Sequence to fold (454 residues):
Amino acid sequence: MNARAIPAVPRPASDVSAVTGWLGLISLTLWIMVCHFWPELVTLFNLPSRAERLTGPNAALTGLVICAAPMVLWEVLVVKVHRRASTGIDWDNPRRLADVIDVSITKLAGLWATWAIIGFLYCVGRWYWDGPYQISMQVLGTAAVPLFVLSVPYVLWLDRVLVNPRDPCWHFGALLVGREPFDPEQIWIHLRAWAVKGFFTAFMIMIVPGGFANLVSPDWSSFFLTPEGIAALLITLMFVIDEQIGSVGYILTMKPLDAQIRSANPYLAGWLAALLCYPPFQIMSPGDRPLFYLAETHGDDNWLHVFAGLPLMMWIWACLLVVLTAIYAWATLAFGIRFSNLTYRGVLTNGPYAYTRHPAYLAKNTFWWCASMPFMVTNGSMVDAVRNAFFLGCVSAIYFWRAKTEERHLLGEDAKYREYHDWMNRYGLITAPLHRLGQAIRARRPALQAQPAE
Fold:
């Protein structure tokens, strides 16, 4: 066998159990089935409920709890993540409450001030009170008082067992209280982490109800009549999986679960690359229609028009798009309870991350090119085809930039990630050939520059 078949160096172990995400998927799938077939269940068991599908926001948000519960139980009871040194917790040597009360008060001041800042930004950001974002504000507004009350016993309990209770949140509180010296760098670590959580948690809660309703509401039997119908149903399912698992990841940023944000990306380029991909900064949809398509194309359903009347190609392309979306959902699923953008929360090396360092970006961008086919325009204009392909190429370039800024962040944070990065360059099924190609191009460039002009 060749060296590619049996790597000389084993792939670094993942900080995330491969089982965790699949347990969330199983429970979420069961809940989706219950919600879709609720009329039949009401009739079968004579339940005291209206015989209609459960498609509302409450059903979608309940899915988050049902999805999260088995993942948390597995992580705690089987993997025992709460015992990892990376949590920063020493359960066997708790302090007396009197020894940490001052630290906890300072930390609570920092935590509550952080929430107040996020709440203020929600209030002044007009997009948070318009359209689908309203559900996020309703959920977070309802949770505000319980979180405020529960934060007191939680912080007091956790500070008793933290190895170093003077964490970044404490340093921010120390700045506000003004009684003890603080580290400005720790304050920036705290603010960056909560900027990620504040921005993306609202976004994820916003998209969950709509995707869930789009999946549960329709009569599924009508989708199985055509390849495009099957693709539409399965793609919607994959996006719901991504939304639900991803939302759980943002919500469960807790040290006892070893799911805390250890650091947020410190580089401005990383933030710019990421925020360009999300509203209200989203470069793909600045108005009523995407930036890189003209009216003559058909957006993400252009493949339907290109292959109309070609049944075999419709089936092939439908399968291709489903597989790409499945890889995208799998990439989120692999994180379990630790998914979030712009953060370091441990090193993930299994699932699709065993083949490429950025499976979600690769699958998502390939999906866009294959589904929209921007170079195929219905008016036959070469100018429109070039324009569309150029702008979609710009979007893909932003995702490449985003991937590189994430790698720069993680390479500076964890020796295990540096080992994983090196392993992928040498043995990754997708990454290794691309890395060798890049090396060959870089090696060729000086040779070309050195050639004398004729």
Observations:
- Residues 286-296 have pLDDT under 50 and may be disordered.
